[in-house]
Structure formats: C-alpha cells, structure tokens
C-alpha cells in the first residue's frame, strides 16, 4: 500500500496513477479493505455501481469507511436496489466498528 500511495501522491518524478490503481486493485483482491475503498473513491461519481462492489469488498474486510461509503450510495439512490434500511444497517455496523463519522450520519 505504501508503494501505491507513493505512485499516487509522492514526489512528481514517482507519480504513476495507473500503477497506483493496479497496486490498489491487487491489494483489494488480496483482502485489503482500505485498497478497495481507495479504488471505489476514484470511481464513485462516474461509476457508482462499480464503486458499490468495491465498497462491499472493503466492508467485508472490516474497513468501516467502506461500509459508510456503501451506505451513502444507498441513501442517495445512486445504485440498483438502493435501500435506506440497508444504509442504516451499514452505518450502524461502521459505527460499532469504530468509524465515528458513521455514528453521526442521519
């Protein structure tokens, strides 16, 4: 993950967004929830359904910000099968896991 962040936001001579995404993709597939979250954040506005799948993977790996991100997609109605009830359950899960921002989201 450190190398991905270096490619993403390190010194200009090391930046390579494509390589950063590939490293995040590999880490996500290996079960690193934060990597799934990072990938989802890059595409959530343009491809919310694909982002939702990544958030599901991140949430399943107990990355609580991923659960909250998925909840926001449910609340906004941006994905197929959006459900306020599911959103509330995801926010409660994220809050219980220690993600404080989810504890104050309506």
Characterize this entry briefly:
This protein has 106 residues and is mostly helical. The longest helix has 13 residues.
Overview of the structural elements:
With 106 residues, the chain is mainly α. The chain has seven helices and no strands. The chain has helices spanning 2-9, 17-29, 33-43, 48-60, 64-76, 84-96, 100-103. The longest helix has 13 residues, at 17-29. The radius of gyration is 14 Å and the shape is globular. The N and C termini lie far apart (32 Å).
Work out the radius of gyration.
14 Å
Tell how many strands the DSSP assignment holds.
Answer: 0
Text of the CATH class: Mainly Alpha
Poorly predicted ranges: none
- Specify the overall morphology: globular
Amount of helix: over 70%
The CATH topology: Serine Threonine Protein Phosphatase 5, Tetratricopeptide repeat
What is the H/E order?
HHHHHHH
Please give the structural blueprint.
Blueprint: H1 2-9, H2 17-29, H3 33-43, H4 48-60, H5 64-76, H6 84-96, H7 100-103
Helix pairs in contact: 1-2, 2-3, 3-4, 4-5, 5-6
């Amino acid at each position: 993950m450190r190398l991905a962040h270096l490619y993403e936001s390190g010194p200009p001579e090391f930046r390579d967004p494509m390589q950063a995404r590939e490293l995040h993709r590999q880490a996500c597939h290996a079960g690193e929830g934060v990597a799934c979250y990072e990938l989802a954040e890059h595409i959530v506005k343009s491809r919310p359904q694909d982002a939702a799948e990544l958030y599901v993977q991140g949430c399943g790996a107990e990355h609580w910000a991923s659960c909250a991100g998925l909840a926001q997609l449910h609340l906004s109605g941006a994905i197929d099968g959006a459900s306020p009830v599911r959103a509330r359950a995801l926010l409660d899960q994220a809050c219980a896991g220690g993600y404080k921002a989810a504890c104050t989201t309506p």
